[in-house]
Amino acid sequence: MQRLSSIMRAAVDKYNMIEAGDKIAVGVSGGKDSVALLAGLAHLRRYYPKPFELVAISADPCFNNKETDFTAVTKLCKSLEVEHIIRRTELFKVVFEDMKSKSPCSLCAKMRRGILHDMAKEANCNKLALGHHSDDAVETFIMNLFCGGNIGCFRPVTYLSNKDLWLIRPMILAEESKINALVKNKNLPIVKSTCPMDKNTERQKSKELIRSLEKDYPDLKTKILGAMERADISGW
Protein backbone atom coordinates (compact mmCIF):
# COMPACT_ATOMS: atom_id res chain seq x y z
CA MET A 1 0.00 0.00 0.00
CA GLN A 2 2.87 2.35 0.79
CA ARG A 3 4.29 1.81 -2.69
CA LEU A 4 1.01 2.63 -4.46
CA SER A 5 0.46 5.57 -2.16
CA SER A 6 3.92 6.91 -3.06
CA ILE A 7 3.17 6.62 -6.79
CA MET A 8 -0.16 8.35 -6.24
CA ARG A 9 1.51 11.14 -4.29
CA ALA A 10 3.97 11.66 -7.15
CA ALA A 11 1.03 12.12 -9.55
CA VAL A 12 -0.87 14.33 -7.10
CA ASP A 13 2.16 16.58 -6.65
CA LYS A 14 3.12 16.62 -10.35
CA TYR A 15 -0.33 17.68 -11.53
CA ASN A 16 -1.44 19.62 -8.41
CA MET A 17 -4.44 17.37 -7.88
CA ILE A 18 -5.15 18.04 -4.20
CA GLU A 19 -5.32 21.25 -2.17
CA ALA A 20 -5.94 21.71 1.54
CA GLY A 21 -9.63 21.57 2.36
CA ASP A 22 -10.65 19.54 -0.69
CA LYS A 23 -13.56 17.17 -0.33
CA ILE A 24 -12.99 14.40 -2.84
CA ALA A 25 -15.61 11.98 -4.13
CA VAL A 26 -14.06 8.67 -5.15
CA GLY A 27 -15.86 6.88 -7.97
CA VAL A 28 -16.12 3.27 -6.81
CA SER A 29 -17.57 0.78 -9.29
CA GLY A 30 -16.34 -2.16 -7.24
CA GLY A 31 -13.70 -3.10 -9.82
CA LYS A 32 -10.06 -3.60 -8.84
CA ASP A 33 -8.95 -0.15 -9.97
CA SER A 34 -11.60 1.77 -8.06
CA VAL A 35 -11.12 -0.11 -4.79
CA ALA A 36 -7.34 0.31 -5.08
CA LEU A 37 -7.87 4.04 -5.66
CA LEU A 38 -10.08 4.27 -2.59
CA ALA A 39 -7.62 2.38 -0.39
CA GLY A 40 -4.68 4.36 -1.76
CA LEU A 41 -6.31 7.74 -1.17
CA ALA A 42 -7.37 6.72 2.34
CA HIS A 43 -3.75 5.79 3.05
CA LEU A 44 -2.46 9.03 1.50
CA ARG A 45 -4.93 11.02 3.59
CA ARG A 46 -3.11 9.89 6.73
CA TYR A 47 0.15 11.71 5.97
CA TYR A 48 -0.36 14.11 3.04
CA PRO A 49 0.57 17.66 4.16
CA LYS A 50 -2.61 19.14 2.68
CA PRO A 51 -5.62 17.82 4.65
CA PHE A 52 -8.54 16.54 2.57
CA GLU A 53 -11.79 14.61 3.02
CA LEU A 54 -13.05 11.54 1.17
CA VAL A 55 -16.45 10.11 0.30
CA ALA A 56 -17.01 7.02 -1.85
CA ILE A 57 -19.77 7.13 -4.48
CA SER A 58 -21.13 4.21 -6.50
CA ALA A 59 -23.54 4.52 -9.44
CA ASP A 60 -25.06 1.07 -9.86
CA PRO A 61 -25.97 0.39 -13.53
CA CYS A 62 -28.23 -2.45 -12.33
CA PHE A 63 -27.07 -4.74 -15.14
CA ASN A 64 -29.67 -7.29 -16.16
CA ASN A 65 -32.10 -5.26 -14.04
CA LYS A 66 -30.52 -6.51 -10.82
CA GLU A 67 -29.04 -4.41 -8.04
CA THR A 68 -25.32 -4.88 -7.48
CA ASP A 69 -24.27 -6.19 -4.07
CA PHE A 70 -21.85 -3.59 -2.68
CA THR A 71 -21.85 -5.05 0.85
CA ALA A 72 -18.13 -5.90 0.84
CA VAL A 73 -17.21 -2.48 -0.57
CA THR A 74 -19.31 -0.71 2.06
CA LYS A 75 -17.53 -2.76 4.71
CA LEU A 76 -14.18 -1.67 3.29
CA CYS A 77 -15.31 1.96 3.34
CA LYS A 78 -16.31 1.62 6.98
CA SER A 79 -12.88 0.21 7.88
CA LEU A 80 -11.27 3.18 6.08
CA GLU A 81 -13.63 5.66 7.79
CA VAL A 82 -15.09 6.78 4.46
CA GLU A 83 -18.80 7.34 3.85
CA HIS A 84 -20.21 5.19 1.02
CA ILE A 85 -23.08 6.55 -1.07
CA ILE A 86 -24.84 4.21 -3.52
CA ARG A 87 -27.29 5.28 -6.20
CA ARG A 88 -29.31 2.68 -8.08
CA THR A 89 -29.83 3.70 -11.70
CA GLU A 90 -31.63 2.53 -14.83
CA LEU A 91 -28.51 2.63 -17.00
CA PHE A 92 -28.87 -0.96 -18.17
CA LYS A 93 -32.54 -0.53 -19.04
CA VAL A 94 -31.99 2.76 -20.89
CA VAL A 95 -28.85 1.76 -22.82
CA PHE A 96 -29.52 -1.89 -23.60
CA GLU A 97 -33.31 -2.20 -23.63
CA ASP A 98 -34.84 1.20 -24.43
CA MET A 99 -32.25 2.69 -26.78
CA LYS A 100 -30.65 -0.56 -27.99
CA SER A 101 -27.53 1.49 -28.67
CA LYS A 102 -25.03 0.26 -31.27
CA SER A 103 -22.28 1.74 -29.08
CA PRO A 104 -23.50 0.75 -25.60
CA CYS A 105 -20.11 1.13 -23.88
CA SER A 106 -19.64 4.73 -24.99
CA LEU A 107 -23.19 5.73 -24.11
CA CYS A 108 -23.19 3.88 -20.78
CA ALA A 109 -19.85 5.43 -19.78
CA LYS A 110 -21.07 8.92 -20.72
CA MET A 111 -24.29 8.55 -18.76
CA ARG A 112 -22.52 7.04 -15.76
CA ARG A 113 -20.03 9.93 -15.71
CA GLY A 114 -22.94 12.37 -15.64
CA ILE A 115 -24.49 10.55 -12.69
CA LEU A 116 -21.17 10.51 -10.81
CA HIS A 117 -20.71 14.23 -11.44
CA ASP A 118 -24.16 14.91 -9.97
CA MET A 119 -23.50 12.62 -6.99
CA ALA A 120 -20.19 14.35 -6.27
CA LYS A 121 -21.83 17.78 -6.25
CA GLU A 122 -24.72 16.57 -4.12
CA ALA A 123 -22.17 15.29 -1.59
CA ASN A 124 -20.66 18.81 -1.52
CA CYS A 125 -17.42 17.62 -3.12
CA ASN A 126 -15.29 19.91 -5.25
CA LYS A 127 -13.32 17.06 -6.83
CA LEU A 128 -14.05 13.59 -8.23
CA ALA A 129 -11.27 10.99 -8.28
CA LEU A 130 -11.34 8.33 -10.99
CA GLY A 131 -9.35 5.09 -11.06
CA HIS A 132 -7.59 5.33 -14.43
CA HIS A 133 -3.99 4.09 -14.48
CA SER A 134 -1.12 4.35 -16.97
CA ASP A 135 -2.27 1.31 -18.97
CA ASP A 136 -5.68 2.96 -19.40
CA ALA A 137 -3.96 6.07 -20.76
CA VAL A 138 -2.04 4.11 -23.39
CA GLU A 139 -5.12 2.12 -24.38
CA THR A 140 -7.18 5.30 -24.69
CA PHE A 141 -4.48 6.85 -26.89
CA ILE A 142 -4.55 3.77 -29.16
CA MET A 143 -8.37 3.73 -29.25
CA ASN A 144 -8.53 7.41 -30.18
CA LEU A 145 -5.96 6.90 -32.93
CA PHE A 146 -7.33 3.70 -34.47
CA CYS A 147 -11.06 4.20 -33.91
CA GLY A 148 -11.46 7.96 -34.08
CA GLY A 149 -8.47 9.12 -36.09
CA ASN A 150 -7.50 11.50 -33.28
CA ILE A 151 -4.34 11.95 -31.25
CA GLY A 152 -5.28 12.45 -27.65
CA CYS A 153 -6.10 10.96 -24.26
CA PHE A 154 -7.94 11.89 -21.10
CA ARG A 155 -6.23 14.53 -18.97
CA PRO A 156 -4.67 13.83 -15.56
CA VAL A 157 -6.72 16.78 -14.27
CA THR A 158 -9.84 18.22 -15.92
CA TYR A 159 -12.06 21.10 -14.86
CA LEU A 160 -15.77 20.85 -15.68
CA SER A 161 -16.94 24.45 -15.78
CA ASN A 162 -20.61 23.50 -16.16
CA LYS A 163 -20.44 21.55 -12.88
CA ASP A 164 -17.70 23.55 -11.15
CA LEU A 165 -16.04 20.20 -10.51
CA TRP A 166 -12.48 18.97 -10.92
CA LEU A 167 -11.78 15.45 -12.19
CA ILE A 168 -8.51 13.97 -10.92
CA ARG A 169 -6.79 10.67 -11.69
CA PRO A 170 -4.34 9.97 -8.83
CA MET A 171 -3.29 6.53 -10.16
CA ILE A 172 -2.32 7.88 -13.58
CA LEU A 173 1.36 6.96 -13.06
CA ALA A 174 0.66 3.47 -11.68
CA GLU A 175 0.92 0.34 -13.82
CA GLU A 176 -2.06 -2.01 -13.94
CA SER A 177 0.11 -4.98 -12.93
CA LYS A 178 1.13 -3.19 -9.71
CA ILE A 179 -2.50 -2.43 -8.91
CA ASN A 180 -3.49 -6.05 -9.53
CA ALA A 181 -0.75 -7.22 -7.17
CA LEU A 182 -1.86 -4.81 -4.45
CA VAL A 183 -5.50 -5.85 -4.67
CA LYS A 184 -4.50 -9.50 -4.44
CA ASN A 185 -1.99 -9.06 -1.62
CA LYS A 186 -4.31 -6.88 0.45
CA ASN A 187 -7.32 -9.06 -0.38
CA LEU A 188 -9.37 -6.01 -1.29
CA PRO A 189 -13.03 -6.78 -2.12
CA ILE A 190 -13.93 -6.92 -5.80
CA VAL A 191 -17.44 -6.76 -7.21
CA LYS A 192 -17.55 -8.96 -10.30
CA SER A 193 -18.87 -7.14 -13.35
CA THR A 194 -22.12 -8.46 -14.82
CA CYS A 195 -21.98 -6.12 -17.81
CA PRO A 196 -23.10 -8.00 -20.95
CA MET A 197 -20.23 -6.33 -22.87
CA ASP A 198 -17.53 -7.31 -20.39
CA LYS A 199 -14.30 -8.37 -22.18
CA ASN A 200 -15.88 -7.55 -25.55
CA THR A 201 -15.00 -3.89 -25.90
CA GLU A 202 -12.70 -1.68 -27.97
CA ARG A 203 -10.60 -1.18 -24.83
CA GLN A 204 -10.10 -4.92 -24.52
CA LYS A 205 -9.08 -5.08 -28.18
CA SER A 206 -6.58 -2.27 -27.63
CA LYS A 207 -5.21 -4.04 -24.57
CA GLU A 208 -4.66 -7.23 -26.56
CA LEU A 209 -3.09 -5.29 -29.47
CA ILE A 210 -0.61 -3.59 -27.15
CA ARG A 211 0.24 -6.90 -25.49
CA SER A 212 0.93 -8.40 -28.92
CA LEU A 213 3.07 -5.46 -30.07
CA GLU A 214 5.15 -5.53 -26.89
CA LYS A 215 6.53 -8.91 -27.92
CA ASP A 216 8.46 -7.13 -30.68
CA TYR A 217 8.66 -3.67 -29.12
CA PRO A 218 9.58 -3.95 -25.41
CA ASP A 219 8.48 -1.13 -23.09
CA LEU A 220 6.01 0.10 -25.71
CA LYS A 221 3.63 1.49 -23.09
CA THR A 222 6.40 3.43 -21.39
CA LYS A 223 7.52 4.84 -24.74
CA ILE A 224 4.00 5.94 -25.67
CA LEU A 225 3.53 7.65 -22.31
CA GLY A 226 6.89 9.36 -22.71
CA ALA A 227 5.96 10.56 -26.19
CA MET A 228 2.64 11.93 -24.89
CA GLU A 229 4.44 13.85 -22.17
CA ARG A 230 7.15 15.26 -24.44
CA ALA A 231 4.51 16.38 -26.95
CA ASP A 232 2.32 17.79 -24.16
CA ILE A 233 -0.66 15.79 -25.41
CA SER A 234 -3.84 16.32 -23.39
CA GLY A 235 -2.01 18.04 -20.56
CA TRP A 236 0.53 15.32 -20.00
Give an overview of the whole structure.
The chain is of the alpha/beta class and 236 residues long. Helix 4 (91-98) packs antiparallel against helix 5 (104-122). Helix 3 (71-79) links the parallel strand 2 (52-60) and strand 3 (83-88). The chain has one domain (2-235): HUPs (Rossmann fold), CATH 3.40.50. It has nine helices and six strands; from the N terminus they run αβαβαβααβαββααα. Strands 3-2-1-4-6-5 form a six-stranded mixed sheet, with helices on both faces.
In a few lines, what is going on in this structure?
The chain has 9 helices and 6 strands, in the order αβαβαβααβαββααα. The protein is of the alpha/beta class. It has a 6-stranded mixed β-sheet, with helices on both faces.
Provide the fold topology.
Blueprint: H1 2-14, E1 22-27, H2 32-45, E2 52-60, H3 71-79, E3 83-88, H4 91-98, H5 104-122, E4 127-129, H6 134-148, E5 157-160, E6 165-168, H7 176-185, H8 202-213, H9 220-230
Parallel strand pairs: 1-2, 1-4, 2-3, 4-6
Antiparallel strand pairs: 5-6
Helix pairs in contact: 1-2, 2-7, 4-5, 6-8
